[in-house]
Amino acid sequence: MKKVYFAVVGVRNFAAEHIKFIKQLENEGELKLAGIGIGVEDRRKNFDLEKKFKKEGVEIFYSYDDLLKNARDFVDVITLPTAIHTHSEMAIKAMKYGYNVLLEKPPAATVQEVDKIIEAEKETGKFCSIGFHMIHSRSIRKLKEIILQGKLGQIKEISCKAIWPRYRSYYTRNEWAGKSIYNGHIILDGPINNALAHYLNNMLYLIGPSMNESIDLETVRAELYRAHTYIETEDTSCIEAKAINGTKIHFYVTHASNKKLDPYMVIEGTKGKAFWDFSEKTTIYLNNGEKIEFDNEGIDPHLEVFRIVAKRHLGIIDELYSTPKNSRPFVVAVNGVYDSAEKIIPIPKNFIKEYEEENEYKTVLNNIDEIIDEAFEKKVLFSDLEIPWARATKEINIKEYKSFNPFS
Fold first, then answer.
1. 262 CB-near residues (< 8 Å, 6+ apart)
2. Residues 350/364, Cβ–Cβ less than 8 Å
3. Which residues form the signal peptide (predicted)?
4. What confidence score (pLDDT) does residue 368 get?
């Protein structure tokens, strides 16, 4: 059986996850970890790990250029679990050197960077898969099949909420965490563009016109807030948008809560309603009385990301599941959110609590759990609920959106 050989850039944080997933799939016979890029800092901190990989026959490279120039004879795919602001440049460079690429989500912080990746694919004939693992989920893909079959009728509204608390340790994990701008590069490292990005992307994907397409948006209105006093970007957001097919989209997220609520999505059509939760349990109630239930069939979507890349490289399938092209509507949505909000509103200190507990420094926005629940049920933004710290924003048209520049 022909194998697909992978090289991972990095060994820490999510790079460690990429290595873990590839190693898990080596037993299936189609994938092999062939190389790892270890920077100078990583080498100092991970000398024992480096020795371990060398014993396993994994080639070690000490710079990205070293990897690109010297791995072409035995590496097929380079994976880039790297900082958001490096994505576009590193992916394009890899494709120009002749490699296929697996790029972590989000593909880039701006739509113009994504467009450059799309153009590089055309110029080089190489592919760039995007690590939106939930698009690879069996439950999400089955749900989309049902939507495309018309069983739910016309999709009128799709809504999602998620409450994932994040503490100081999360924002100190690297130099760019919690930043909007880093070293002159746009990052937008808030919940909608990083930790909870999958669930905004899921909604755009589910109402796309074909199996591997996402929907473009026509308008967006959004609010961005910051409760954590030591970060730059938002940690609490709400979005309402309208797709070009008329479907309304609602999204509510926060990192400034006391409790955790995993992503929960409701899809409302003219012929029924679907409910999906983070466990991937999906329940559909059709107006004719039929009930449909399914889950992910025990398939880990993280592993599917790598399987699909391997299958595409081998020519077993013709299309990737997650691409720069079908990720573009997500990036446009995020850029439009920032343009609509215009600025991130800091929450007044009398509405938040910051304290140490169980070796973590926590920030909690008062009653945000209840606020998100109410906004989700009523399908409104926080300012529509007359929350004292909330500020109304403007709806903007993003149908022909081609450039995002917060510096202008």
1. 162, 164, 277, 278, 279
2. no
3. none
4. 98
Report the pLDDT value the prediction gives residue 49, as an integer from 0 to 100.
Answer: 74
- Contacts of residue 197, defined as CB under 8 A and 6 or more positions apart, other chains included, come to 105, 106, 132, 191, 330, 334
Q: Which residue ranges of the chain lie beneath pLDDT 50?
A: none
Q: Which of 290, 266, 277, 273 is nearest to 153 (CA)?
A: 273
Question: Please, are residues 164 and 195 in contact by the beta-carbon 8 Å criterion?
Answer: yes
Cα-based distances in Å from 373 to 161, 171, 215, 239, 357: 8, 26, 26, 14, 26
What is the model's pLDDT at position 51?
A: 79
Residue 334 CB-density burial (10 A; 0-12 exposed, 13-18 middle, 19+ buried): buried
- Burial class from Cβ neighbours inside 10 Å (0-12, 13-18, 19+) for residue 305 reads buried
CB atoms within 10 A of CB 116: 16
pTM of the shown model: 0.96
Q: Which pLDDT score is estimated for 13?
A: 84
Are 82 and 90 within 8 A, CB to CB? yes
What's the one-letter identity of residue 365?
L
Residue with token string 């000490």: 62
List domains and CATH numbers for the chain: 4-132 (3.40.50.720), 134-297+324-397 (3.30.360.10)
Q: Closest Cα partner for 165 from 228, 225, 224?
A: 228
Measure the CA–CA gap between 320 and 125, rounded to whole angstroms. Answer: 14
CB 295 within 8 A of CB 279: yes
Q: What is the pLDDT of residue 43?
A: 61
By the 8 A CB rule, do 362 and 165 touch?
yes
Nearest-10 Cα torsion for 272, 276, 282, 286 = 0
Q: C-alpha distances in angstroms, 35 versus 30, 53, 229, 267?
A: 16, 9, 40, 42
Strand ranges across the sheet with 59-61: 59-61, 31-37, 4-9, 77-80, 100-103, 128-130
| Alpha-carbon 118 to chain mean position | 18
Q: Which of 275, 288, 281 is nearest to 153 (CA)?
A: 288
Cis peptide before 301 (omega within 30 of 0): no
DSSP class of residue 367 equals T
